[in-house]
Structure formats: C-alpha cells, structure tokens
Amino acid sequence: MALEQPIAVLGAGGMLGRAVVRRLESEGVRTLAVGRDTIDLAGRIPETVITDLGAAAVVNCAAWTDVDGAEAAEDEATAVNGEGVARLTKACAVGGATLVHFSTDYVFDGLSTTPYTTGHPRAPLNAYGRSKAVGERALEESDADWICVRTSWLYGAWGKNFVLTIARLLAERDELKVVSDQVGRPSSVRQLADRSLALLARGERGMFHSTDGGECSWHGFAKFIAGVTRSNARVEPCGTDAFPRPAKRPPYSVLDTSATDEALGDPAHWHEETRAALRDATEATEDRQA
Ligand SMILES: NC(=O)c1ccc[n+]([C@@H]2O[C@H](COP(=O)([O-])OP(=O)(O)OC[C@H]3O[C@@H](n4cnc5c(N)ncnc54)[C@H](OP(=O)(O)O)[C@@H]3O)[C@@H](O)[C@H]2O)c1
Questions:
Q1: 99 - beta bridge partners?
Q2: pTM given for the model
Q3: Does 232 map to a domain?
Q4: Is 166 within a domain?
C-alpha cells in the first residue's frame, strides 16, 4: 500500500488495533496511533481533527466492547459505538479520509439457520448489538467514504480472547464445560487486519463481512484448542443456560463472507489461524522469559 499520507488507527492498543498497526508497519505505511487524548469517541470530536492529522484513511478499531457491561450502561456504550462513530464520520468527510470501521455479528437476531448476508435486516439481541447498529446507520447516512467490516468471535496472540483464555484454563483444570449450542465463525485479528486493509487498498467501499474460513460451536473451538495444546483436560459440552450472563447471545451468528472472498480469495480456515495464534503467543511468552 504505497501512500504519501499516513493512515490513522484508533484503538491501536486494542486486540485488533495491534494487528492493524503491525500490518501497516510491515508494509512501510506511515501509521498514526491516535489516542483518546486526540479522539475520544465518547466526547467531542473536532470536525477538523482528521484534516489536522493529514490522514488518507482512518482505521477505527476503537469501540465499547464490554458486551455484558453494555446491558447496564447502554447509553454509554451507544455514546461510543453509535454517536461517537457519527462524529468520526463527519471528521472523516471534512478531512477527505476513507473510514474503515468494524462491526459485529451481534447486529443480527441469531435466529437464522443460514449465513447472514451483508444486506440481512439488523435486529440486535442485546445492548451492545444495538449500540453497534447505531454506528452502522451513522456510516450509511454519512457523507464520508467508508468500509464497514462486520466480524465475529475475535481472537489473537494477545488481548483478552477465547483462545488464550481456554488455553490457560486447560492448563489449570482437569475438566472444562463449554457451550455447544452457539455456532459462529472465529476470526483471527491477524487475518481480519490483512483482509480489511486489502479491501481498503483495492478501493472497495460499503458493507463487508470478514471471518476465518469454517464455522464451529464454542465447544468445538475449545476441543480444537485442547488438541493443539496437547491438553489432557476433558472438554465437555453444555447449554448456554449453564452460564447465565447479562447479555443474550445469538444461537447462530455465521456471517456470509462471499463478497469479501470474491474480492480477495478464500480466507484461511480457523484451524490454521488458531494454531498460528497459539504459536505466536507461546513464542512471545518464551521471548519475555529469555
Ligand atoms: N472482540 C470480539 O469478539 C469482536 C467481535 C465482533 C466485532 N468486534 C469489533 O471489532 C473491533 C475491535 O474489537 P477489539 O476486541 O479489538 O477491541 P478491544 O481489544 O476491546 O479494544 C478496544 C479499543 O478501543 C479503545 N476505546 C474504547 N473506548 C474508547 C473511546 N471512548 N475513545 C477512543 N478509544 C476508545 C480502547 O482503548 P483503551 O485501551 O484506552 O480502553 C481499546 O484500544 C470493535 O469495533 C468491536 O466492536 C469485536
């Protein structure tokens, strides 16, 4: 991606943000990690902030991501994920920068039995999903040039995520119970960053879905992690009702990624990406201990 102007990354310290920064830097793109001191999605965003940064594009990896916490704080979550995104689109339009934004499978109702297409009607099941849906509408109504990439079940070699949590629990316990009645598509932040930036570089615009290849239940995902880590712990299936949580979870949230796959080719399967994330996490731990 050869650009004279830099690309600004919001939420650069988050799980996906770190992968986006790595990818951009590996391609020699000038990258601006923009912190809350410059853009706080929950606060006022000066309309000229993107112009002042001189960014050609803004990759927004910042969001309120506490799904359960949003149930008791929907206004705060919406201020960041909805109204904050609306303010950001305005600054991007003024600055002539393309906005790459991320959304979620949780904007859908979870009741489908076939993969959700990009045009499927939004009907979120929980407060977080509603707040992200407000952000999507803000993009659609804005004058900015935008790409919105919906994704699901994010994981990577860093950050708080299912793969690292299960790997740790498998090392600590003899048995784990994991829900088997929710099905979705895992997405490694590494692959998501690569594919989202590839869409940007190709000049694609509008709504896309991007996940790893394949699908599974959380139980199937955990069993695979146990295999890769050679754990002897038992991984037993259970129902969602065994772990009551404040926010409702969709039973089925498989995203149809065909538009992205037609543009970029098929994604790597979640088996391959999960193996790579676990390998990278182990190497990072070994490096720290050396
Ligand atoms: N995680 C998933 O499974 C998942 C699934 C589907 C979609 N997504 C979407 O993918 C994107 C990335 O998620 P992630 O899991 O990488 O997020 P994450 O690790 O929780 O990171 C979120 C980032 O947002 C920043 N942030 C939070 N509130 C902010 C505010 N008011 N102003 C500016 N920055 C703020 C955080 O900064 P601090 O570190 O300073 O708090 C952090 O850097 C989000 O849009 C999320 O909705 C995630």
A1: 58, 146
A2: 0.96
A3: no
A4: yes
Q: Which residue has the higher pLDDT, 208 or 289?
A: 208
Instruction: Cite the active site residues.
Output: 128
Q: For the residues 55-84, what does the mean pLDDT come to? A: 98
Coarse DSSP helix, strand, coil percentages of the chain, rounded to the nearest 5 percent: 45, 20, 40
Give the CATH number for residue 193. Answer: 3.40.50.720
The DSSP string of 144-173 is SEEEEEEE-SEE-SSSS-HHHHHHHHHHH-
Instruction: Give dist(CA 77, CA 228) in Å, integer.
Output: 36
**Which of left, alpha, beta for 159 (phi over 0: left; psi -120 to 50: alpha)?**
left
Please give the Cα distance from 107 to 257 (Å, whole number). 15
Distance separating alpha carbons of residues 101 and 106, to the nearest angstrom = 15
Coil/strand/helix, residue 23: helix
Closest to 139 measured CA to CA, from 95, 96, 100? 100
CA of 189 to the centre of ligand 1 (A): 12
**Model confidence at 6: pLDDT above 60:** yes
Token readout for 195 is 């594919």
34-53 pLDDT, tens digit per residue, is 999 999 999 999 999 999 99
Segments forming the whole domain that contains residue 111: 7-217+243-289
Q: Is residue 283 part of a domain?
A: yes
CA–centroid distance, residue 66 to ligand 1 (Å) = 9
Test site for ligand 1: of 16, 158, 190, most ligand atoms within 8 A of the Cβ: 16
| Count: domains in the chain | 1
pLDDT score of 271 more than 80: yes
Residue 2 lies in a domain: no
> Which residues does ligand 1 sit against, CB inside 6 Å?
10-11, 13-17, 36, 40-42, 61-65, 80, 102, 104, 132, 151-154, 159
